């Protein structure tokens, strides 16, 4: 059972916390835009101060080749157990800024929602952890376990410095459990712990024919057209139902259990939700799986972009010499990105039409992640949600990838709890990002409950 | 037999003619660039003066909604027969200008080739007709038939004003035969009369899925990807050998006779020539036809451009909402562009994959052309070539389209002789365009021979 003291403290200081968060959100810490480099550092410094205010015994900037990492810790617990908390203080760009109803870095509260870039992803959620810990320390004088904060400034650009940072600071970051709040709830009032993420691999495909673009009158019919060739090649990757035709692609997939599939089936009508949200009359996907399963437990291969030949207004009677495509796969547990990308390259090589040459270039990849939900901390987390939200938290997966989670898993080898408090409708990465203050309040309560009920086996 | 008088006149005045042509070529009459509008008019005025110098009784600018047409005539022949000559005084743009070895509008003669934009296409060839007529008039005091010149300034932008001009001036342009020198010879020393041109039709294809680009992690697997859908759709248009799969596409094609095919087979090894020119290891085309037949007598459907989704550096994990392609067909005698474009639209509609909507937009189209080579003027033309070049002229076709030829055919209903003097290697529309002076000299001789031997039946 949760004591009411820390929770009361949170409630008393609510307006002040919101004001502080607004201050945090005013800093335009866009990690992808070099003009904002100073702002990113300002946000790091602000985070250091917030950790000190919360009662951390140590809080400092740690340099990386890119934007700095903020590290903080309180290590005076009466035991050796440690909770590590990961978050990020950088935000996405704001373009197209004209689609925002209020300026992205001038936070406002409207109908109990806080509107600003980063409100939900991830300044708001990171700040909740800081304040939950602060409430516990302020009201009890100590925490039940040690705490470490790792708050980075490059999450929105793919965490390029963090792999190396985690590997070099394995000792510093050692802990028993890792908490991350950067995934969505299932919906309003529907808490979820995300237990799986998809991995990724990606490839650029370049096809080249004649030495240059050709006049379609003078040469048309006698030479290969690179765009036709690319179209023919790409069309071999997928069948008409969306099943990937690359040999071996599904071989290592770990199928979800019937229990897991049954639990997802009870989550509601995702198909209708999707169609409405995306303005679609029909969905499309591999036969034998639901839309939720398509996005959570099945691997994909998507063409992300294609280009070649004339793209201007009207027509130009040209036979394009070159054609290009970009593809990415989302991978599920069991699949190894190195193996999959190799299979795809072999498929492309063996299906290249005559008259063109093929080049492929690998880009980012990351392994899929599946959490060990039999660890007791998972039960603690779902119980905490249920205590506060009044409804059981469900285990979900997410179709996206958070490559750093896989790094934490590999290097730290501890249970990772993805306890999100954002809603899918909160426009992460889009105009009018916002955060429901209901989840700001309940989220802090949930975290306090989690801290107070967490137990480690002897 | 040809008299030597006019030919000697040509030879005596050769250097002066070249100097005049250089003056013509100095005018940057690029019809597609509005900044050159004044230059285009300067070239029209220059042409009027050249026609007056040649002895035309009338030579004037005639306005159109676009660049002006130059009209000239001499109508004092002792009979009612008239030769109409069509050419154009406008030129293509010069980009990329840095690839020119000498400035495009500062003509120079190098190794008996005249380098300048328009040298071959079509100022040089148009000028030859003017000078051939001048030589006849200057040395004989009259021409065997009346002559009319129609020299336009919009050929390189698709002759947008000429259809209307020809239709409105049917009486003014009435003639017994039309001469055009704007097609290539077969090669050096290999004269050709082009008897067929391919027609054209063109279509923009737009595919749209969800309301916007989607995150490939959150949605990937459950919704149609517009680029995949477009790829799948476009791949239905052609089989692996390049044969078009649109129902009815080949139904109305008038196959060339065995004699015609045999004559093309004797023209030499076009396959090797093409591979070398285009830096290709292999050609590609419909089975059962040679490369020359692919480009001259077979219809095509080419994707001229494709675009959709992310085209920048690296990868972006997006499911594109829209995808676009542009296609054009080259059509051969028998095929009607209206019918073909309709068949293609129906094919696309019936093959559109689920989860996307299709829109098509028609662009330019033009009918194919096949000359009535049994008209005696064709024999006169090939004899004229043979007399000067010492080798028989062959009938060829051209894979490209000159839509105005079809208009002349429809409106004037007279034989059209495409007697070209350019070489395929002379870089029309490309950097370092040039004109072999050998063909400037022999071309004028050929035209004089043609004028002197042409006969019309009673």
From TrEMBL, chains A, B:
Gene3D superfamilies linked to this entry: 3.30.70.360, Zn peptidases
Superkingdom as given in the UniProt entry: Bacteria
SUPFAM superfamilies, per the entry: Bacterial exopeptidase dimerisation domain (SSF55031), Zn-dependent exopeptidases (SSF53187)
Keywords: Hydrolase, Metal-binding, Protease
Domain (Peptidase M20 dimerisation) ranges: 196-355
Annotated InterPro entries: Bact_exopeptidase_dim_dom, Cyt/Met_Dipeptidase, Peptidase_M20, Peptidase_M20_dimer
GO biological process: proteolysis
Protein name: Dipeptidase
Protein's organism: Alkalicoccobacillus porphyridii
